[in-house]
Design a protein that fits this description.
The protein is an alpha/beta fold. Helix content is 32%, strand content 12%. About 15% of the residues have low confidence.
Length: 474
């Protein structure tokens, strides 16, 4: 039997399968003492290398060739959709917002452009009890002032019946809860007037019309769909099967197995392009095959800042400036449907509407606190719709402030003693504040937009769907 490395891998519940070094029981990756000599690969930090082998490894790292090929693409532009890390003080005058007592918290964090969840949590725990309670009171007041009628819109269209009734290839790896989410996204697109149902629901090959002037559509050919954060691409697969789309672009930075691409390419007259690129670096206007074609931008569960990056990608800031100056804009974007997700990962630098937050006197540090609270939205039992709860349950009056006991342990103790339902409600409130800011940005842009809960929270607590459509004059 071949000798194997004696290093035990707990996650895989087995020993390492690599061959050991000569006169050693371990391979080069797991030899005791070598971990101090290893450093993360500068090209792909997911693996490490010996410091002495750095120069040689960089030349042959498998990711190096991929990075070089990507940088040569005309649609690659580093950080084009990333946003800027300016403070709120740059967006509004100082006489509108007084310095909040909590502005000193996360002082060390604010020096970094990428704030981790651990940094956000530690910063909150360092607050005094009065600062913490004032922050919660402020969040409640803001939510009350911006609350709009965000309707439940669980819409399963008849066009998606072939998927709902599992009349598709049984080999496709999908789960019922994902089918329901995808179908409701498409149903809301139809209800919002962005998609029209095929003339013949029985024939999945019948073509769909984006809501635009039919004569202009005839001149430019079939519309396209761009799915951001596409993953395996099954939202697009359902859209193609049920609405007859013929041209799709799948934007995803990671590599996946069991993708929908193979099944899509087998369809007649189907054009599919997969762009393996970070949304932050994608210049959508430089994709030659998309030039001059009206398109619909979609995304399911765009984690954290990916929603903000997508909005900038579809509606670059220079277009907004042109609109303000009264210039006409040649915009091929016809509609947007983005299901937001993982708000706890949001970053101030990337957030699309800092001006909105600043008008509400939300500082950069408070924004990071709000994003951390959003992770609580998935803490409780979602058998009931917690996002509709009227009573906050944040019993602020019950929090006794002991001046002699102010400190890290006091706030941490308050957080740990909060009921799960109270934490969840606060999480939903903070998620809504973040998404309403995005919605207002779209409206300020001149788009017709709305925010809906597209599935019940017992299907997915990440149930916010942002819809927008462009007018013909854009």
């Amino acid at each position: 039997m071949d000798r194997r490395c004696k290093f035990w891998l707990p996650k895989k519940n087995r020993f390492c399968a690599n061959a050991p070094l000569q006169e050693s029981e371990f391979c080069g990756n797991h030899k005791p003492g070598w971990e101090q000599l290893r450093i993360p690969c500068p090209i792909d930090p997911s693996h490490s290398i010996l410091r002495e082998n750095l120069d040689a490894h960089v030349k042959r790292c498998p990711l190096q060739k991929q990075v070089h090929q990507l940088q040569m693409q005309p649609f690659y532009k580093k950080g084009v959709n990333g946003g800027r890390d300016e403070d709120s003080s740059e967006l509004i005058t100082s006489d509108k917002v007084e310095e909040h007592p909590s502005s000193k918290f996360t002082k060390s964090c604010s020096e970094s452009s990428d704030i981790s969840s651990e940094m956000k949590r530690n910063a909150i725990y360092k607050m005094s009890v009065p600062e913490f309670t004032e922050l919660l009171t402020k969040i409640k007041s803001i939510h009350t002032s911006i609350t709009s009628s965000m309707q439940d819109s669980y819409a399963i269209p008849e066009a998606c019946s072939i998927w709902i009734k599992t009349q598709v290839d049984r080999k496709l790896p999908f789960q019922e809860k994902h089918i329901l989410q995808q179908a409701s996204i498409l149903g809301n697109l139809e209800a919002f007037g962005i998609l029209q149902r095929p003339m013949d629901l029985i024939d999945p090959e019948s073509e769909v019309h984006l809501c635009s002037d039919d004569s202009s559509r005839d001149k430019i050919g079939s519309p396209a769909v761009v799915e951001f954060g596409a993953g395996r691409g099954y939202l697009t697969h359902m859209l193609v099967d049920c609405y007859g789309i013929k041209k799709v672009f799948l934007v995803e930075r990671k590599s996946y197995k069991l993708k929908a691409d193979r099944s899509l390419r087998q369809k007649e007259r189907m054009t599919i392009e997969r762009l393996r690129i970070d949304i932050e670096d994608l210049n959508l206007n430089a994709i030659a095959s998309l030039s001059g074609i009206p398109y619909l931008a979609i995304g399911k569960h765009l984690c954290g800042p990916a929603t903000d990056l997508t909005l900038r990608c579809c509606l670059p800031e220079q277009y907004s400036q042109s609109k303000v100056s009264g210039l006409s804009i040649n915009c091929n974007l016809k509609g947007i449907a983005l299901a937001t997700c993982c708000h706890h990962l949001c970053q101030w630098k990337h957030y699309i509407n800092k001006r909105f937050l600043s008008s509400l006197a939300i500082t950069k540090e408070e924004f990071h606190a709000i994003t951390w609270f959003t992770s609580w939205a998935v803490d409780a039992d979602h058998g009931s719709n917690l996002s509709e709860s009227v009573d906050w349950g944040l019993h602020l009056c019950d929090i006794k402030v002991n001046e002699s006991g102010v400190g890290v342990n006091r706030v941490e103790e308050i957080v740990r003693n909060m009921k799960a339902v109270d934490r969840a409600v606060l999480g939903f409130v903070c998620k809504e504040i973040i998404d309403v800011g995005r919605l207002m940005w779209l409206k300020d842009y001149g788009l017709e937009a709305q925010l809906v809960k597209y599935v019940p929270s017992n299907i997915s607590p990440e149930n916010h769907l942002m819809l927008a459509k462009c007018s013909n004059h854009l």
